[in-house]
Sequence to fold (116 residues):
Amino acid sequence: QVQLVESGGGLVQPGGSLRLACVASGSIFSRFGMRWFRQPPGKQREWVAGISSSGGTTTYAASVKGRFTLSRDNAKNTMYLQMNSLKPEDAAVYYCYAIRGREEYWGQGTQVTVSS
Fold:
């Protein structure tokens, strides 16, 4: 079992920045690939970015590439999403996701609001 807890969400003005964190507990974090998803109000959940278990490979959705940076610190069991140049359309609940083979886990989400 893996427990995932997100933090770092909040209200930010357009053009601003936030850093989300996802802390994992309960299993060996470094064995899991990690991803961020988001769900805007009234819309379906969508994939945002992913990082390999070692942290050596990252991938991004086209909508966030160049603005968001994903990283992880396996010694701290934590994944980070640095979000810069935020736009109103980035507003959503952001979810942390862990996967290893058939094992998959979700966090409870953290709200990001982008508004002036």
